[in-house]
Amino acid sequence: MMNSETKVSLAWGVGIIVLALGLSSARSAGHIDHDTVTRIVLGATGLMVAWFGNMMPKRFVPSELARKVHRVGGWSLVISGLIYSGAFAVLPIQTAVFVGGGAVVAGLAITIGYCQSLRTKARA
User: Fold this and answer.
1) Is 124 helix (H, G, I), strand (E, B) or coil?
2) I need a labelling partner for 35 at 20 to 30 A (CA). Which of 21, 22, 54, 62 fits?
3) What H or E segment, with its residue span, contains residue 63?
4) Per-residue pLDDT tens digits for 6-41
5) Mind giving me the DSSP string for 39-98?
6) Is the entire prediction scored with pTM above 0.70?
7) Residue 31, φ and ψ in degrees, nearest 5
């Protein structure tokens, strides 16, 4: 049986696929344009990153260092996911790709850098 975390993850994935298919149908029918489809689907993807970033620190972790990493990683993903979504909502597509992608890469770099700093402190 699946746990609730797996169900939520699957729901996000299925939801984005259903959203993309629905928007593609609306585009084919002439109701919306290609840019709108791209913006909505990629904006939803950014919201998914923010959701998982928000959930990450709430998981049970026995180690204090692991909890610290989850908090930093969670915040960096929430912020980068919201920037990603916001970029696709308001910026030209090419700029949104650069800004949104950069935000996600920066969020990952912050988390990895924080992990490295904790490892260095633990060794000292």
Assistant:
1) coil
2) 54
3) none
4) 888 889 889 999 999 999 999 999 999 999 999 999
5) HHHHHHHHHHHHHHHHHGGGS--S-HHHHHHHHHHHHHHHHHHHHHHHHHHHS-HHHHHH
6) yes
7) -80, -30
